[in-house]
Structures are given as structure tokens and as C-alpha cells.
Amino acid sequence: MDDFLDKLPQMDLMRSEKMTLVQLIIPVESAHRSVTYLGELGLLQFRDLNADKSPFQRTFATQVKRCGEMSRKLRFFKDQIDKAGLRCLQRHELEPNIELGDLERQLADHEHEVLEMNSNSEKLRQTYNELLEFKIVLQKASGFLVSSNAHAIGDETELHESTYSNNGFIESSSLLEQEMRPEPLNQSGLRFISGIINKDKLLRFERMLFRATRGNMLFNQTPSDEEIMDPSTSEMVEKNVFVVFFSGEQARTKILKICEAFGANCYPVPEDITKQRQLTREVLSRLSDLEATLDAGSRHRNNALNAVGYSLTKWMTTVRREKAVYDTLNMLNFDVTKKCLVGEGWCPTFAKTQIHEVLQRATSDSNSQVGVIFHVMHAVESPPTYFRTNKLTNAFQEIIDAYGVARYQEANPAVYSVVTYPFLFAVMFGDWGHGLCLLLGALYLLARERKLSKQKLGSFMEMLFGGRYVILLMALFSIYCGLIYNEFFSVPFHIFGGSAYKCRDTTCSDAYTAGLVKYRDPYPFGVDPSWRGSRSELPYLNSLKMKMSILLGIAQMNLGLILSFFNARFFGSSLDIRYQFIPQMIFLNSLFGYLSLLIIIKWCTGSQADLYHVMIYMFLSPTEELGENELFWGQPFAPSLLILLLLLAFIAVPWMLFPKPFALRKIHMERFQGRTYGLLGTSEVDLDVEPDSARSHQEEEFNFSEIFVHQLIHSIEFVLGSVSNTASYLRLWALSLAHSELSTVFYEKVLLLAWGYENILIRLIGVVVFAFATAFILLMMETLSAFLHALRLHWVEFMGKFFHGDGYKFKPFSFTLISDDADALGVRRNLRRNSVCFLVVMVTYRSFLL
């Protein structure tokens, strides 16, 4: 048997790649190039030899900081380009590689230029907004200044406004920085202040003015006809023009302070119409000049950003790679002479030759006189887990890794999940009409694979695109199971020939209620279409799907136990085979394997035996004769067979519990005694030479009570889990039945009911409702529900029999694994959690709907 198993060919995905711990001694002059070439190869995972040091105490902390600063500048350029509505276009011609120092200087120059242009643009925009507000105030406030007051008041106001409307006012400084000029002291004269304020502050502003002046003022306001950009937020806001009439210098001071507190901008308006027109013409002329200046500045800024955008993607890639290289160099140690860097890492065994060639090429390209020393080290710790996957198997491997990363060289469940996962999904989702819809969606994702892979997708769309091959297989298996169930949107078809049943009477018109009679050979493939609508349809389908679920469950759990045997044999653990695999196989199959055998015999013989009676009385009264419940030949020996199976099941429980802890204790005692005698003849020098890790491994204490409790928990969990896991597979029957009944309800109570009316509008509404229910309930919620339940069956019932999942992933230093941006990295990190939460919500809603 062992020779036969040894001759079996190895599977690529059955066990993880063999890993090797290697040490690199790299000269300083070729360190950067060596690490860069290793990043391009992407087959070496470095160990952090400076884990006790903070990031600021490491050798290349300055270079990492420089790269971080350049990354900040590149993000600034990208934000500016996006804000300007431009696109980052790449030049088609090849650009020469740029040194990091030259790139740093170029980025500094570009940033200084863009910041200066932004500053000038903000000042010009602020001046433009002030002039625009001044123009609106001049246009709106003139209607409030028509007055028939005394000439004294008019002369005073005229003198005050002439002070404001001199030619040097507009040309000299910013209007918002201007303050109201002191007016001639005339306490009996009527004065006014005009300005503009945000619309949402107007009522509070008016109330505050009224309280501050105790009602001794006249407030007029009118809305502006156009929105004005707020300089602080760059948003368009609605403003109102106001004019406040008052008397006295003290009131003027209060009003100006209130205007400043509310952010109201005050502008002087002459009362003379001629001066108003002259000032308006000057403001309009200045606005026209500023518009031309702003347009020219915007074009110049866009040209500068376009020049940066041509190389932005390449620069970001370069900086990202350089930062990754220096981060990796910080994981290496300097040797005693400070001339070489020492690094350690894991690599696949098959990649040692490639790594050695890459290091030789790096030595040659850097003109180093000393080559890189590359040698294999003895590993004490467990290596990382690495599976080579492709587009098809990667999605299934990710599903398994979401539960736990396989232990090094442990049997990989993803090999079998490629088939079992979509098949169990299809058992619950079986309808070849719905399967065709899923197939169209999967084919669409595959047809646009190259285009979608280059786009930034949302969380849900990224999940769908990543599982496109999973959806494809689920669709194909759903079509297969749908053909077995003979359901096309719940409608049966005579695809593989005529039915095996006919009416009892040739004249009967109610054959579906009076019953059918079999008159020819069974239907060639799948469920006979005549079962649909008959009075025995539900009992027949319930019996079929329930027994099929039990058979599938027992088969998959046995597969899990068989994989535990291969794991134990691979790792050389004969104790696990003798005291774990064998009793578990006996316990599971003496009870539930026997049930599966009875199901198969009943199907093959067409017996009417009651399996519930057989299994219940197997425990209550195993010696009782079966009578009419006999399923196979050998009735007199049946009680003896049942007693034998029960005894095997009861014996298997202590077999799992007691022998293994005591056997481990015996092995430990033998090793301990042998090591004690060996240490008597060992010198102190030998103890010093022995590695610390090996000594600590030998000095581990054997805790018998902890091992016994662990074995007790494991045994109880398996015994109880055998019952609960078998019952858990009945979800295949329940969800398949629910999917079929929901589909039938939507077809008969929506589509057929609406089609029974002659009104075309009612028919159209029925078709729309049926399509909506099919798409969002059957194709979306039912898909997610079946996906989630298939996930649970694999994670708990199947993988729980053999899978430890306590390993850690192989994460090599590779430039291709560097994420494009932080947002995409956050999406990938939260994708699993968001997907599971979304699935739970959809299944809860589906349960509420049912």
C-alpha cells in the first residue's frame, strides 16, 4: 500500500511549494541593484532582522523619508490635475530612466511653480470676486439712495463719497482691505453703509444691527441676481446687497464691527448718479482685464500640469519602487566590517537557481569586485505557505485562505473546492434557466476581462470580477443540476424524450389530481416532467433531495477524513493514523455510512421500507426484527449487524480519546531519558555551539493535562459534529426546495396570472414584475444565499475534518504586488469583511421574505 501511494504523481496544488531558508551577504555597492532585481523577480520573502529597531533608527531611514516626501508631492500633482479636470496622458515614446536625485529636484521645481501659480491665481480670484461684488453693490444699492433730504445732508454725503471715489482707490489696494474713511463730524447728518452678505446670515445680521443701534437705523436689502464664488471654500453662494442708513459716528463704528463679525463686505457707493456710472465703468473695465488675466493664468497652469501629467504615472511607479527597495534594505543587517549587508529570507526551492542568476547579474551590472554570497540555511521555524495558482484556481484559493492559510505542506482544500464548491452551490440553486442567466453574466465579465482589470472598480464589482471563474463554474453546474431537476424557471420540459407516466384513464382531464400511472421505461435523464404539478410532487422531491443531501454530505466528510490520513502519512504521524483517522472512519461510517448504504439500496431495489424506523430502532431496539422494513438479503443476520455497528461506534469513542495522549507521554519520557544520558557526556563547548532555537525547542515542557484536555475536546467535537454536520448538509435539500418553490410562485402567481387577462397593460406589468422578481430575488439574493451556505459547508463540515489553517502566507518582495494607491489597498483589505456582511444582510432579508 505504501509503495502504491509513493508512486502516485504529485499534484501542484495538493501541497504547498517546498520552501528554503536562504542567507544573502551583499556588498554595499551592489545592494540596491540586487534588491531591485529581486523585486522584479518576486520570489524571495525577506525576514526583518531589525525588528527591535524603530523606523527612525534604521540605516536607510533618510532615503525612505525622501521617497515619502516625493510621494506626497506626486499625490499633490495628481490632486491638482484631478481638480483641474485634466487627464494623465502617457507619452508613447520610451523615456529614459531618471535618477532619484534628479527626480527629487524636478519635483521640487514643479511643486514650487504650481504653488506659486496657485497663490497668484487665488489673489487674482479674490480681487475679481471683490470687484464683482462691488459691481453688484453699485447696481443694486443705487435704488436705495434716491433721497429728497436737505441739501446739508446731501452736501455732507457728497463730500464723504468724493473722498472714496478718487482715482487711486481702485488701482491701489484690495477692496476688502479698504476701510471706511473718516467722515466730517456732523452728528445730525444722515449717513449710510452699503455692502453685500451671505443670504443665510441676513436675518441674524439685521437683528444684530437693530439691537446694536436700538432701532436707530434703516435697513434695506435686495438679492443679487447671480451667485458669487466664496474665496475661502471656492463654492458658489447666494448673497444679498444691503444698505444701512444711520446717524452718528458711534453708530457707524458699531455697524462696521458687526459687518466684520458677520463676514459682510462693505463697499462705498456715491450718491451722485454720474459718479456711480463713472465708477461702474471703471469696475467693469478692471473686471474685463482680470478675466483675461485669469484665463491666461489658467491656461499656463494647465500646460504646466499637463507637462507633469505626461510622466506622473512613471514617476509614481519609480518612487513607489524605490521606497519599497529602501524599506527592504532596512530589513537587512550590516556585518561587522560595515561593508556588506546580511539578509535572510524564504524562497521556493525551485527558485534558487533563478535567484542566484539574478544576483550574479546585479553584481555584474554594478561593477562590484565582490559577488553576492548566496547559501541555504537550516530552518527551525515553520516556512510560509505558497501555492502557484492561475486565474481559475486563484479565486478558489482566496476562498480557502479567507478561512485560514494552510499549514506548510498541508493538504490544500482548494484542489477539491474547484469542483465541490460550485457543485454544492448548484444543488441548492439548480435551475438551468437561472444558470443560463448566471452564465451570461460570467461570459460578460470574461469578455471584458482585459478592460475591467485595468479599471478601478467598486467593492462589490471588484468582488464579482475577482470571482468571475467561480461564477462561470457555478453557472455550468447550475445548468447541469437544473437539467437533473428538469426546471427551466420552474417549468419542466421533455428534453430527453417522452414521459414514463400517463393518465389512469384515457378520457381523464384531471390527471394531475387523480394521479398518473407508469407505462414505459423511466425518463432517461433527471426528474420526469410529469411529476410537476402532480399531487405527489412535493413528497417525491422532498424524499429525493433529502436523501441526496445526506449522500453528498457523508461523501464529502469521508473525503475530509481521507485527506487527514494523507496529511498524517505525509508528516509521518503514525499516531494520528492509528488513534485518530481509523476510529473516526469507524464511527462515522458505522452510523451514517450505514444510513447512506440503506439509501442506495432502497433506490436500487425500489423498496418501501421506512428508513426512519430502521435508524431509530437501530439504537432503541437493535435486536428487533425489521419485518417489512427489510432492505437487503440476510434478514436473520440483521440484528447481529446492527449490534456490531453500534459496538464499533461506541468503541471508537474511547479509541479516539485515551491512547494518543498516553502514547505521546511515553514518547516524551523516552526522549527525555535519552537526552539526560546524552548530556552527561557533552562538554560545555558543545552546549555553546548548539543553536539557541534548538535548545529552546528541546527544553519545551510536556504538559500531559493540556494534551489530554485538547484530545478530549477534539473527540467530543467530532462525535457531536458527526451528527450536527450530517444534519447541516440538509440545507442542500431545504434551499433547493425553497428556490424551486419561489420560482414556481413567481411563475404561476405572477406571470401566468397576468397572462390570463386580455389587457395588454396587465400582461406588461406581469412580465415586468416577473423579470424584477427573477433578477433581484432569484438571481441575486438566492445566488448569494446559496454561495454563503456552500461556503459554510466547506469551511466547517469539510475542512474541519483535516484542515488546521494556522500557517502564514508567502509574501515575497515583488514590485507587481505593490498597490497602485492607498484607496485600492483599503478596498482589498475590507473586501472580505464587506462581502460577508452584505451576504448576511441578503440572507436575512431572504429569510424574512420566505
Describe this structure in words.
Belongs to the V-ATPase 116 kDa subunit family. Keywords: Coiled coil, Hydrogen ion transport, Ion transport, Membrane, Transmembrane, Transmembrane helix, Transport. With 850 residues, the protein is an alpha+beta fold. The chain is built from 28 helices and 13 strands. Strands 1, 2, 9, 10 and 11 form a 5-stranded antiparallel beta sheet that branches. A hairpin with a 6-residue loop joins strand 5 (228-229) and strand 6 (236-237). It is extended and about 125 Å long.
> What structural class results from the helix and strand content?
alpha+beta
> For the terminal residues, how far apart are their CA atoms?
52 Å
Number of strand segments: 13
Average pLDDT level: 82
Which percent range fits the helix content? Answer: 55-70%
Fraction in beta strands:
5-15%
Shape, please? extended
Layout of strands and helices, then pairs:
Blueprint: H1 2-6, E1 19-27, H2 31-41, E2 45-46, H3 61-83, H4 100-141, H5 151-164, H6 167-172, E3 191-198, H7 202-212, E4 218-223, E5 228-229, E6 236-237, E7 239-246, H8 249-261, E8 265-266, H9 273-329, E9 333-334, E10 340-348, H10 352-365, E11 373-377, H11 391-403, H12 414-429, H13 432-447, H14 449-452, H15 459-466, H16 468-485, E12 501-503, H17 511-514, E13 516-518, H18 537-570, H19 574-605, H20 611-620, H21 638-657, H22 659-680, H23 684-689, H24 692-698, H25 704-728, H26 731-755, H27 760-798, H28 822-849
Antiparallel strand pairs: 1-10, 1-11, 2-10, 3-7, 3-8, 4-7, 5-6, 9-10, 12-13
Helix pairs in contact: 2-9, 2-10, 3-4, 3-9, 4-9, 7-8, 11-12, 12-16, 12-26, 12-27, 13-16, 15-28, 18-19, 18-26, 19-21, 19-22, 19-25, 22-25, 26-27, 27-28
